Every structure is written in structure tokens, then in C-alpha cells.
TrEMBL record:
CDD domains: BTB_POZ_ZBTB_KLHL-like
Upper lineage: Eukaryota, Viridiplantae, Chlorophyta, core chlorophytes, Chlorophyceae
Protein name according to UniProt: BTB domain-containing protein
Coiled-coil ranges per UniProt: none
Ranges of Acidic residues composition bias in the record: 95-111
Domain of life: Eukaryota
Cellular component aspect of the GO annotation: cytoplasm; ubiquitin ligase complex
Organism annotation: Edaphochlamys debaryana
Domain BTB residues, every copy: 368-435
Keywords noted in UniProt: ANK repeat, Repeat
Pathway(s): Protein modification; protein ubiquitination
Glycoprotein keyword on record: no
Region (Disordered): 95-135
PROSITE patterns named among the record's database cross-references: BTB (PS50097), PROKAR_LIPOPROTEIN (PS51257)
């Protein structure tokens, strides 16, 4: 256990550009960085060792402690390496100087698996955000410059690298299995954007991914493969802020790092925003049902790579000052060794929102007692859930109307795509609203007496406002009445802020013709703004 603990402590300090032991991290009586470790490498297992010299510009980064092999995995250049307990560095996959895409899983199996101890024929982009599942797989994101997308990769480790929990960690040739070993690099999913933070949640059996201002969960099967697409966990893409809450009601500024802790499978998220010529960060805790709470805020510095130390402290790297920030937030560290085999494939922790969503996804399964008909589409649903979760359905189904006992309920003039999202929100309490459907969802939510969903959809409309579309959105919001007055005010403020762009597009003539009162209010607001400048 002490061997594993010491290796895990060394792992974090790789984020400072080299490997340093963090002395005192097993207790709570003071910590300090020791001298940089002396590392070694060899051409092949059993050959003479020499000092490890990384290529220029290929310093170690993005470290991950793997309890299954009791090794540290890290990225250098376009390759993934591992550091054994004997301070031996071994190339795992890729070429540090040459980037590329790994073969997809449907390509030739031998080519996808790679060849040789270092799998040098496997090409990777810029592997980063390495994380371990503790069961023989390393996951990372990988992007190729100019590709406009990000791959989520799985690196399956050789069985010979596994160190049983009852045995001390091996190093050098013993850890490598005494001969040539292969890993298999395979794609999980392809995603937009490049900046995806990554962590593995043992309790959820999922990868937790952060991009921009949202967190997603990518469920993994017993064999380590992924579901077709990630599911929103908390926050909302392209809607920044610092707001606690559950699911898509919470707001993040910029997800800059994710670390699992040992408290019921929770996550620690480093939330960063720019300000005063630098960055200011907050530490947020996220539970597996998507509930977000802020643990600390106002942290200055270029912070990244949060990690829960064996003593429960949260350590965070500052990339500019090459230092560590250590916080006592009452966190629990993860187990240092793999879970027992019987628990390795335990089912994910169940939550009410997930179970309700699964119930909806299972339709029609014979449990629904009401069918909602929207523009010809039929949606099986549960009468009791609709009554409990939506005032509109409560009134129609319990108000003494004939609808109360009907087997079908029609919703004329509703958009079926918008209603599908609304129904999912009724069951799950959260839904990711595409910008193209946000106006329709907002109108339908207002009509069906769901003010929270209406507000969420209006926020999506506001987040996508442009100089070409702001006038149309203003006229739309005015037509819909008091429930949209807040959005109308925000749109007007945006139009004032970007007045020259709006005027250049020629849409103000439409506003004069169709909304003279709005035009007058816009002109007054613009004049007031100019007086105060």
C-alpha cells in the first residue's frame, strides 16, 4: 500500500514539467516538494538502462495514476508513456515527434493493435487528459491540428502489466512482462472542439467529459466500450456563469480540470474564468445526479490539473509559477489499489433522474396509460407523472374534464420535436436544448405551464443572438407576452450594445414597421447609454 501511495503522489507533480516526490502528502502535518526524480529508459526489456532524456519540447504532462499496473501514464509530444515503480520510462503508444490518427476499430485488427513493445506504428494526435479506469484501460482525448474534432481513445494495457493487489509493485522488465508487449488503441467517439477535460468515475461506470461550460457522461460497457454519444450531466454548452444547481440549471465558466474523489463517486471540477488580466478559478463539486455546489472561489493563477491527494487535500498546479496550491476542502481520496474483482463490474449508481429517463426511453413497454398525440406523432406516457410534474396536464387530467379518463390526449398546433424535448424534461428534470429548437420549446413550455423549462429555452435563444437575428427575436418575444419580458429586455440591451452591427444589417427598418414601440424603446436606451459614456 505504501508503494502505491508514493507512486500516486509522484504522479501529480509531473504536471510541473518533471517528476517530483510530494513529501508529507500521506499525512496532514505539512508538505513540500522533494528533488526531481532520476528517471531511466532502455531500448528493450533486459537491455542496459540509461538516463531518460525527453525530446526537446516533449516534457511530461497530463499524468494519470493507474492502480491496475501501479504505474504512472503520461503524455510527451504525440505519444503516451508510462513510469514504473523502478523509475523506468517506457513508450506505450505513438511517436513523440509524428502525429496522426489511430486506426479505427473496423480497420485491420493487426494494424489497429500496433506492433512491438512501444506500438510505434500507432499514430496519435495530441493525447491529453489521461485517466485510468483501474481495470486495465487508459482513456485520453486526442486531436490533430487543423482537424476540427477531438477523438476519445481507449488504450488497453497488456495483461502482463497487471499487479495483483496482494503483491508489491514490480518494475523494469518484470513490470513489462519480461518481453515484447502490445497495447490496443481504439476510438470510442469523435467529438467537436479540442478542449475536452476527462476523468473516470468508477461509481458511474462512465467517462466524465468537460467541454466549454458543460459536463457530459459517456457510459462504458463491461468491456470498456462506449455508448454512441455522451449524455449531459451538468451545465450547458456556450452558456457561461457561476451558478449552483442541478443538471442544465447549473452554470460553469470554463471547465479546466476534473478529478474524482472518494465520496460516493463525486467529482471535483476546476472552473476557470478570465479577469483582471489573468484567471480566477472556483472549485465545484458535482455529484452523479448532476448537482453542482461551489466549494471555493476567487482562486487566482493559471490553475489546472486538480488532484485529490492521499490525505484528502486538493492539490492544483499553477502552470505559470510552477507551483502547487493545496486546499483542505474535506474531500475523500480514491482507493489506491484496484477494487476487488467482484466489484469491478458493479452496476452504476442509480439516481431518480436516470431511472425516470430510462422509463421514458423504454416506451412503449406496456406501462404507459396515456398516449399524447402531437402532429401525428404518438408519445406513450404515464398519467401520474404528467399530473405531478406539469400543471397543464394536472388541470386537464384532474379538473373534471372528459380528458381525465381518455386514453389519448391531443395537443394541436404543437411542434413534435419540441414536445419530445419537453416530455424528456418532465421525466428527467433536465434536457439539452438545441438552439434551432429553443424558440419552439420556449413557446410550448409557456403554453403548458412549465416556467422553468421556458426560462431555460429563452436562455438558449439569448445565447445564440446575432446582429442579423436580434430584431426577429425581439418581435417574437414581444408577441408572446409577459413570460418573455425578461428575454425582451436582454435582447434590447444586446441590440444597444451591438447597435452599429444591427444597423449595418438593415433590420432596423423591419423593427420600425412591425414594432414601432420596440424601436422607440431601443432608441431611448441607446440615447441613455451614450449619455452615460
Amino acid at each position: 500500500m505504501e508503494e502505491a501511495k508514493l507512486m500516486q503522489i509522484r504522479k501529480f507533480c509531473c504536471s510541473l514539467g518533471s517528476f517530483f516526490p510530494l513529501l508529507g502528502a500521506c499525512g496532514r502535518s505539512g508538505m513540500r516538494l522533494g528533488p526531481a526524480l532520476s528517471l531511466f529508459e532502455a531500448d528493450a526489456p533486459g537491455t542496459p538502462l540509461r538516463p531518460y532524456r525527453p525530446l526537446e519540447g516533449c516534457s511530461p504532462s497530463s499524468p494519470a495514476w493507474d492502480p491496475w499496473s501501479r504505474s504512472i501514464f503520461f503524455r510527451a509530444g504525440h505519444a503516451v508513456y508510462r513510469l514504473t515503480s523502478a523509475e523506468l520510462v517506457e513508450l506505450v503508444a505513438g511517436d513523440p515527434e509524428e502525429e496522426g490518427d489511430p486506426e479505427s476499430e473496423d480497420e485491420d485488427e493487426e494494424a489497429a493493435a500496433g506492433a512491438g513493445p512501444a506500438n510505434e506504428d500507432v499514430r496519435m494526435g495530441s493525447p491529453s487528459r489521461l485517466t485510468s479506469d483501474g481495470q486495465g484501460s487508459i482513456y485520453c482525448s486526442s486531436s490533430v491540428e487543423g482537424a476540427g474534432e477531438c477523438l476519445m481513445l481507449r488504450v488497453q494495457l497488456p495483461a502482463a502489466w497487471q499487479v495483483p493487489a496482494a503483491e508489491p509493485a514490480a518494475g523494469g522488465a518484470a513490470a513489462a512482462g519480461g518481453g515484447l508487449q502490445r497495447v490496443r488503441v481504439s476510438r470510442l467517439v469523435t467529438l467537436e472542439d479540442h478542449a475536452w477535460e476527462l476523468a473516470y468515475s468508477q461509481s458511474a461506470g462512465s467517462l466524465i467529459m468537460g467541454s466549454n461550460s458543460a459536463l457530459y457522461r459517456l457510459p462504458l460497457g463491461p468491456g470498456g466500450g462506449a455508448e454512441p454519444a455522451p449524455v449531459l450531466l451538468a451545465g450547458r454548452r456556450s452558456q457561461e456563469g457561476l451558478r449552483d444547481g442541478q443538471g442544465d440549471r447549473a452554470r460553469f465558466s470554463e471547465v479546466a480540470g476534473i478529478a474524482p474523489d472518494g465520496d460516493a463517486g463525486g467529482l471535483v471540477v476546476l472552473d476557470r474564468r478570465s479577469g483582471n488580466g489573468g484567471f480566477v478559478s472556483a472549485v465545484r463539486r458535482v455529484t452523479l445526479d448532476g448537482t453542482v455546489t461551489t466549494l471555493a472561489s476567487g482562486l487566482a493563477g493559471h490553475l489546472h490539473t486538480p488532484f485529490v491527494l492521499p490525505n484528502g487535500y486538493l492539490a492544483i498546479c499553477d502552470g505559470r509559477t510552477q507551483s502547487l496550491m493545496v486546499l483542505d476542502l474535506g474531500l475523500k481520496p480514491l482507493p489506491l489499489l484496484p477494487a476487488p474483482a467482484a466489484a469491478a463490474f458493479a452496476p452504476p449508481r442509480r439516481t431518480l433522474h436516470a431511472d425516470m429517463g430510462a422509463l421514458l426511453d423504454a416506451q412503449p413497454d406496456g406501462t404507459a396509460d396515456l398516449t399524447l398525440v402531437v402532429a401525428g406523432r404518438r408519445f406513450p406516457a404515464h398519467r401520474a407523472i404528467l399530473i405531478a410534474r406539469c400543471d397543464y396536464f394536472g388541470q386537464r387530467l384532474e379538473g373534471g374534464f372528459a380528458d381525465g379518463t381518455a386514453a389519448e390526449l391531443s395537443l394541436p398546433d404543437a411542434d413534435p420535436a419540441a414536445f419530445e424535448l419537453l416530455l424528456r424534461w418532465v421525466y428527467r428534470g433536465a434536457v439539452d436544448i438545441p438552439p434551432s429548437l429553443a424558440p419552439a420549446v420556449a413557446e410550448l413550455a409557456d403554453r403548458l405551464l412549465l416556467p422553468e423549462l421556458c426560462a431555460d429555452a429563452q436562455a438558449v435563444v439569448l445565447s445564440g443572438v446575432s446582429a442579423a437575428g436580434v430584431v426577429g427575436s425581439l418581435l417574437w418575444a414581444e408577441r408572446l407576452g409577459p413570460s418573455f419580458s425578461g428575454l425582451q429586455s436582454s435582447l434590447k440591451a444586446w441590440a444597444v450594445e451591438h447597435y452599429e452591427e444591427v444597423r449595418g444589417g438593415g433590420s432596423l427598418r423591419r423593427l420600425m414597421a412591425e414594432g414601432p414601440g420596440l424601436m422607440e424603446g431601443l432608441t431611448d436606451a441607446l440615447a441613455k447609454r451614450r449619455r452615460t459614456q
